[in-house]
Amino acid sequence: MNIGLIAHDGKKKLMQNFCIAYRGILNKHELFATATTGRLIEEVTNLTIHKYLAGPLGGEQQMASQIEHNLIDMVIFLRDPQNQQLHEPDIFNVMHLCDVHNIPLATNLATAELLVKALERGDLEWREMYR
Ligand SMILES: O=C(CO)COP(=O)(O)O
């Protein structure tokens, strides 16, 4: 499966800890992240991440394009509800496209944990039929 990972600055530490905790599941999949999120995950895990541009430089647009091409199977986007981002339209577009294409999307830790456990159980294998 191809997994998209993005974290707002206020949630990057949480993303690192999430990836440390679930690296044994995540390392069986292809991981894609915006540049800073991806670099920070690589710094604390042995995971290899395909990195887009940084979010404010268009990284979310790159992920959005991959979603539109049916190349992303699940997105974990740890959002910081306290801080509005300057590139909010790009962020909204990623979430919008997940809804358009019925891609599982977690925007907080509780749902991210549910999704990654579902991934381990094989609950998302129906995605392969849509390729
Ligand atoms: O900007 C982001 C979230 O909106 C994420 O991008 P970075 O991972 O490059 O910081």
UniProtKB/TrEMBL annotation:
<comment type="similarity">
    <text>Belongs to the methylglyoxal synthase family.</text>
</comment>
<feature type="binding site">
    <location>
        <position position="8"/>
    </location>
    <ligand>
        <name>substrate</name>
    </ligand>
</feature>
<dbReference type="Pfam" id="PF02142">
    <property type="entry name" value="MGS"/>
</dbReference>
<dbReference type="InterPro" id="IPR011607">
    <property type="entry name" value="MGS-like_dom"/>
</dbReference>
<keyword id="KW-0456">Lyase</keyword>
<feature type="domain" description="MGS-like">
    <location>
        <begin position="1"/>
        <end position="131"/>
    </location>
</feature>
<comment type="function">
    <text>Catalyzes the formation of methylglyoxal from dihydroxyacetone phosphate.</text>
</comment>
<dbReference type="InterPro" id="IPR036914">
    <property type="entry name" value="MGS-like_dom_sf"/>
</dbReference>
<dbReference type="GO" id="GO:0019242">
    <property type="term" value="P:methylglyoxal biosynthetic process"/>
</dbReference>
<dbReference type="InterPro" id="IPR004363">
    <property type="entry name" value="Methylgl_synth"/>
</dbReference>
<feature type="binding site">
    <location>
        <position position="12"/>
    </location>
    <ligand>
        <name>substrate</name>
    </ligand>
</feature>
<protein>
    <recommendedName>
        <fullName>Methylglyoxal synthase</fullName>
        <ecNumber>4.2.3.3</ecNumber>
    </recommendedName>
</protein>
<dbReference type="GO" id="GO:0008929">
    <property type="term" value="F:methylglyoxal synthase activity"/>
</dbReference>
<dbReference type="GO" id="GO:0005829">
    <property type="term" value="C:cytosol"/>
</dbReference>
<feature type="binding site">
    <location>
        <position position="87"/>
    </location>
    <ligand>
        <name>substrate</name>
    </ligand>
</feature>
